[in-house]
Design a protein that fits this description.
Blueprint lengths: L2 H9 L24 H24 L3 E5 L13 H14 L6 E5 L16 H8 L4 E7 L4 H29 L1 H4 L6 H8 L19 H21 L5 E2 L3 H14 L3 E6 L4 E5 H9 L8 E6 L5 E7 L4 E8 L2 E8 L5 E8 L2 E4 L1 H8 L7
Parallel strand pairs: 3-5
Antiparallel strand pairs: 1-2, 2-3, 4-8, 5-6, 6-9, 7-8, 9-12, 10-11
Length: 366
C-alpha cells in the first residue's frame, strides 16, 4: 500500500464534524494590512525553519534538508502582496499546501537547485519533490516547554490540595447542615470526589443564603468549584495543525506521496509527530480532552485549530541555545510604521535516535 493510500484510509475515519474532506476548500480573503504581531510571528516561524535546517544538515551525512514552503518577504499592504496571495491560493487548489521543508537522500539532492526551492514554480520541480523521503511542516511557539510543564504540575498539585482539603472541611465542619433532606445529595457527591476524578468532576454551586452557616457552606462550595475549574484547564502545550490545513496537507500528499510530519519548535526543545499519527489521534473522539483539544485560535483569526498534546510526540531536540533578537522598524504605505522582532542564530541539539525513529530512517545510515 502506498503512503497516500494509507493516509486516505485514515482520513475516512475522521468525523466529518471535525474535518469534511468531501467539501471544497473555502478560499481565504486577501488580508488588507499586516500587524506587528503577524510579522513577528512570521519572523519566528522563519527562524524555526532555519534552526531545523542547520541542525539537520550539520548532523547528517546521507540526507539533505531544504526549504520548500511557499513564502515571501512581502506582507499585506505592500506592493505585490495581492499577486503573491492569489498565486498561493491557486497553488493550494492545484497541489495542496507545500510543507515548509523537504528531506532528500544526498544522492538525490540537486546541487543546482540548492537549499531553497521555495520560490520555484511547482510545475518545474514536481518530479524532484516526489523524490523526497520526508516533508516537514514547522510550527513555532514562544514558550519554554520545560518551564511550562513544571508550572502546570505545580498548578495542578496546588489546586488538587485545595480541592481535597475543602471537600473534607465541608464534610466535617458542615455535616449537620448537609443532613437536611434538601441538601443531603451533596454528601454522596462529595464522598465520590477523589484525586483521580477531579479532572471530570462537575457540580452546581448551591445558592443558599438564609443563614450565616449556609452562606459559609456555599462559599466553601465556591472554593471547591473554582479549584476544580483550575485543575480542568488545558495543561499542555501543543502541536497545532489548523483544521483547514489538514485538507490541503492531504491534497499535497495525494499529489506527491511523500510522508508528512509536524515539527513543533519551542525555545528550549523540539517535538515531532507524523501526520498519520495526528489523523489516528483525532479519529478517536475518546482522545479529545486527553490527547487533543479543538479550539478557536484567537492569535490566528479565530481559525479552528487542533491542539495535539506535545507530550505524546517525540522529543527530537533536547536543548536549544536561544537566538539573539532585535527590534525592526518597517515603513508601510501612507507613512504607517510597524515595529516587530527578528531572530538570528541559535542552536538545536538533536536527539538523533528519536529523530530517526520519527522519520523511519536507519540511524546507522543517518
Amino acid at each position: 500500500m502506498s503512503y497516500f493510500h494509507y493516509i486516505k484510509e485514515l482520513t475516512q475515519k475522521i468525523p466529518i464534524e471535525l474535518v469534511n474532506f468531501d467539501e471544497d476548500r473555502v478560499p481565504a480573503r486577501i488580508p488588507t494590512q499586516a500587524s506587528s504581531n503577524f510579522i513577528t510571528n512570521k519572523e519566528q516561524g522563519d527562524w524555526a525553519e532555519n534552526l531545523i535546517i542547520r541542525a539537520f544538515n550539520d548532523r547528517t551525512k546521507n540526507y539533505v534538508c531544504v526549504k520548500y514552503g511557499k513564502s515571501d518577504d512581502i506582507v499585506a499592504g505592500e506592493d505585490g502582496f495581492d499577486k503573491f496571495f492569489l498565486e498561493f491560493q491557486e497553488e493550494l487548489d492545484t497541489i495542496g499546501k507545500r510543507p515548509d521543508l523537504l528531506i532528500f537522500k544526498s544522492s538525490d539532492f540537486n546541487q543546482n537547485l540548492g537549499f531553497d526551492i521555495s520560490k520555484i514554480p511547482h510545475n518545474e520541480i514536481s518530479e524532484y519533490v516526489k523524490m523526497a523521503i520526508a516533508a516537514i511542516e514547522v510550527r513555532s511557539s514562544a514558550f519554554l516547554i520545560g518551564k511550562y510543564n513544571k508550572a502546570m504540575e505545580n498548578r495542578t498539585a496546588k489546586f488538587t490540595k485545595i480541592a481535597l482539603e475543602t471537600k473534607e472541611r465541608i464534610l466535617t465542619e458542615f455535616s449537620e447542615e448537609l443532613q437536611h433532606p434538601s441538601r443531603s445529595t451533596y454528601i454522596d457527591m462529595l464522598n465520590h470526589i477523589n484525586e483521580e476524578n477531579l479532572s471530570i468532576t462537575s457540580f452546581r454551586v448551591p445558592s443558599w443564603s438564609s443563614s450565616k452557616r449556609l452562606i459559609e457552606l456555599k462559599d466553601n462550595f465556591k472554593i471547591l468549584k473554582n479549584a476544580i475549574k483550575e485543575i480542568q484547564k488545558r495543561d499542555f502545550l501543543s502541536i497545532t495543525p489548523k483544521v483547514e490545513d489538514v485538507k490541503v496537507v492531504y491534497k499535497w500528499i495525494e499529489t506527491f506521496n511523500v510522508p508528512h510530519y509536524y515539527f513543533q519548535v519551542f525555545f528550549d526543545k523540539i517535538y515531532a509527530i507524523s501526520f498519520a499519527q495526528i489523523l489516528t489521534i483525532i479519529a478517536d473522539s475518546d482522545n479529545e480532552g486527553l490527547l487533543f483539544s479543538i479550539e478557536k485560535d484567537t492569535k490566528n483569526q479565530n481559525k479552528t485549530t487542533i491542539k495535539i498534546n506535545s507530550n505524546y510526540a517525540n522529543e527530537i531536540a533536547y536543548k536549544i541555545d536561544e537566538p539573539t533578537h532585535k527590534s525592526v522598524r518597517k515603513e508601510m504605505g501612507r507613512g504607517r510604521l510597524l515595529f516587530y522582532v527578528t531572530f538570528e542564530g541559535g542552536v538545536a541539539y538533536l536527539d538523533v535516535d528519536e529523530l530517526c525513529d520519527v522519520l523511519a530512517i536507519n540511524i546507522g545510515g543517518f
